[in-house]
Amino acid sequence: MAVVELPEWAALAPVLILAGTALALFVFDSINPRSTNRTVLAGTAAIGSLVALGVAVWFTVAGVGASGLEGFGAIELFDGQLVVDQMALYFMIIVAVVTALVSVASYDYMEGHTYQAEYYSLVMLAATGMATMAAANSLVTILIALELASLPSYALVAILKDNRGSIEAGLKYFLIGALSSAIFVYGISLVYGATGYLQLDAIATQLETGAADGEFAYGGLLGLGILMLIGGFAFKTASVPFHFWAPEAYEGAPAPIAAFLSSASKAAGFVIAFRVFTTAFPLDATSALIGVDWTLAFVILAIVTMTVGNFAAATQQNVKRMLAYSSIGHAGYALIGLAGLGAGSELVMGAAMMHLLVYGFMNTGAFLFVALAEHWGVGRTFEDYNGLGQRAPVACFALVIFMFSLAGIPPLGGFWSKYFLFTGAIEAGLLVVAAALIVNSALSLYYYSRLVKAVWFEEPPAARDSLGQPTGLYAAIVFAAVMTVVLLPGFGPVVETALDAAAAMIA
Amino acid sequence: MEGVFDFAPAIAVFPLVAFVIALAFGKHLPKKGAIPGILATGGSLLLSALMLVAVSSGEVYHETLYEWAAGDATSATGVEGIAFTFGILIDPLAALMLVIVSLVAFLVHVFSLGYMNAEGETGLPRYYAGLGLFTFSMLAFVYADNLLMAFMFFELVGLCSFLLIGFWFRTKSAPSAAKKAFLVTRFGDYFFLIGVVAIAATFGTLQFAGDESFVAAAQTAIDDGGTLFGFDAQTWVTITGLLVLGGVLGKSAQFPLHTWLPDAMEGPTTVSALIHAATMVAAGVYLVARMFGYYALSPTTLAIIAFVGGFTALFAATMGVVKDDIKQVLAYSTISQYGYMMLGLGVGGYVAGVFHLMNHAFFKALLFLGAGSVIVLMHHEQDMWKMGGLKDKAPVTYYTFLAGALALAGIIPFSGFWSKDEILYDAFIVGLEEPVIMAAYAMGLAAVFFTGFYTFRMVFLTFHGEPRSEAAEDPHPVGWSIKAPLIVLGVLAVVAGAANLAPVYKLTGLELTFLESWLDGEYGAIEGLTYGAYGELLAYETGVVGTEQLTVMIAAGLSLLLAFSGAGVAWKLYNVPEPVVYRDRLGRVGDVIEANYYQDEYQVWLAEGVTLPLARAADRFDQTAIDGAVDGVSTASLFGSDRLKRIQTGIVTNYAALLVTGFIVLLLVLGYAGGWFL
Q: What pTM does this model have?
């Protein structure tokens, strides 16, 4: 039993806290527009996201939204436009953690930057959008949340106003984003046209009735709509062929923003994909209506995405760009969670959720290392990173953890989630996908270990000055590294939470 | 004696502690680690003796101490789940062996004070650490209650043997001998490991004793008459038994895996005494005795054991005849004596085999330590042709050595006579019904002659006649740390035979067969692990010549006659002031024996002529086909990566076009599959 009885809307507390933090930063900015008091700004953002994180963890532990006898069941708000259940809270945790890491790291990275308050408030707004995506339960709220997450992101990528690369990346991101949003909205309209509903549960009911009656006339229309929705998710998760923005946006953006986009934004993209496809389009009924199993689309996307991402990453010279492609590859791995839904096992979707959580730490950590390197000003290519291990052993050791975890080397967290994805894929009978996962993981080890080799085994290019140890960046990197490692012992509860959440969605 | 078994783990732990102390602090200790070793083995000896007393008062100990892995695999006989454990089994056999091992280890530690410390060797902490680790592993092997644990410690003693043979690693020969010992025994252990896995997979348990043991399970399987892995149950028991036997042949230096033992004499003589005579080499034979119930189920395996044993006994004895190095003679003698034990066990003479194991441990440790004493006397000379005349100058060494020699040669009433005679008697009565065993018996009997010969050739060349070198004229004195162990073992070599005077019992009816009663569980034993229980399993029939008494007389008379004639010929040839080398008169036979029947040569040929080309071919396949494929994959990947990278042109209109194209392709694929365009 809960000690305190809270009103139902309080279930949205993590989102509200994030939004409140953003507004507080705006207020601060209005009062003191030229302030570069980084401590207050970064601190506010970090504290806000940490409080949101704490509340989300507390809710999860307390069983808010959990199904079963002791829980209260999923909490539906505003006639089911938003829903707070285990999966929503799980992804809010991912978003809040990454936001906190990025805020702390930005304290050093954005040193000497003019638009401090704007930067942090945009980050918080985007985080609000992503957290709302986790709870959105209707195509309308999904679209709004998605745009709320996207629009600040465009601005954040382009926030280095004096940097050509940043501006160019922001524009490209915006253009591709506009195209993808158009496709997505068109998809929504087609689904609405075919079913007459926007709320996800209502769509599912309509489809099941239609499949049972056999009077559903818009099968092709619905199929096209679903495919266009997939396009929208693919954009958000940087999956092929909607991935073209990613390498350039990540490369041009400030490194903490690249971390933010590649971890939190990707996770948020996955949560709406998970929710829409498990809630709105029940597999049997939908297949009967559109004549094809929609998991087929995800099978294709998963294989193509992981292959393109990893193969393109293999020969990159620029570290950030390598990480960008690697992030595309990881989107491919997470797509297995949707591709394997056909077998009706919650294991594979739970595995994808675990992977996204571990990924939130290891990938954010890796990008933050790049942020650290940019802060030092050592350069951008693998050669420029040569011999950093001698100067900054702690950060470089953390980098080794991130790289090996991304590659999936035991006993690090990345190994376990990938292992669960692999067994899940096998269980779901997707042998081709499982094989692609293995081949791509093997290939990924090549380029991840190139970076490890560069920092530890290569000789530094020339006499290098001693490198600073910015507190915020170091703290964030070390924390991410520790989490990447200890998530393994902690995997018991994480596995349970993810599997429960996945089971609740599928049931 | 309630509760005394609680201290059982300490028997093995004491030497382990000594190992750690010698390794960590040996350099700073007054005797470089000898004191902890002596204290630890002394403690082990004391506790082992307590165990012996406890067992004699009718108690046994069988306890699983730690389960380190468990699985839910179902065995071929339908046992669900398997657990891998560490446990202790102390029954009459184990208690006896514990005392033997800890006693010899204790004496060897004491002897080392005179042999290693007094001689100013370097690297002593390493030496004592090795001895400690070995004693720990050997004792743990002895009271292991399951086959896997036995295997693990079997391997550990092998490792210690490797480390100690190579103690003088700066010489050229010692490391090479160590490697040879390791590789040859490893070859046998490879089969042993497969055997362990096979037994585990078949019966779902590796316990030696109790209703849950694999021995009992095998018996049930044979009685049920089913098939296991496509074989008749008995055939499968034979196959697995032979696989385990591979390890036994390697460790106990039986033909054809005996070649490592003579080389192992490169180690310090104390190590030879402890490891390569009295204990580790006995591990193989002990293992056969430990799981004798399993072998008793398979007459084929037993016959093979008996035949290999008889053959090895003769084969090694003939090689011992022509050796000039005192330790080499003893090495071949050891191989030969273990052949006797295998012969004894193979004909179902469980008591006789264990009896000889015990006696041999004492008299062979004595002989090796005696040889060590001679080596000290001779300023580290081992060639017997440079000795002579030591009899008067070192009486303690001489008389104890003589006692050991009499025991080894099988001269009544010394200990070796009683056990060897019992083995030959057991083989004889079975041989009357089974021609194969008769052949094994005949070889064992012939070996008695050679044993008598080479033993006394060694004694006469070493101690009698005139000194043949300066060192022999003026020997280096030896201290009490050397003499005391010799005396203890010398006494044992004389009297240990009294433990089982089987011929006396058969002739006069006097019940002087303590060891038989001991192993038959008259004082206490675990059910199924007694001589009587094994006897019921055996399929052998025995015959007699006339009456039992007459048969005993014939068997004992024959072996005594041969032993005396062997010793007599040696006396005639070598007990003269100036003995001469007779080797050349043997002609081509001598050459063959001198070359050890070309055993090393053919094994080297197997390695270089067969294995090496095969390995080269495999390597070539690996280098070209496998590596080629791998390199090809990586080249193709990098090439593909390079192409794929170029899609990213940096022009946003291209991206939009590609994005839409990709989307349309996906649409076409799904639409075609879903039939949307119809």
A: 0.66
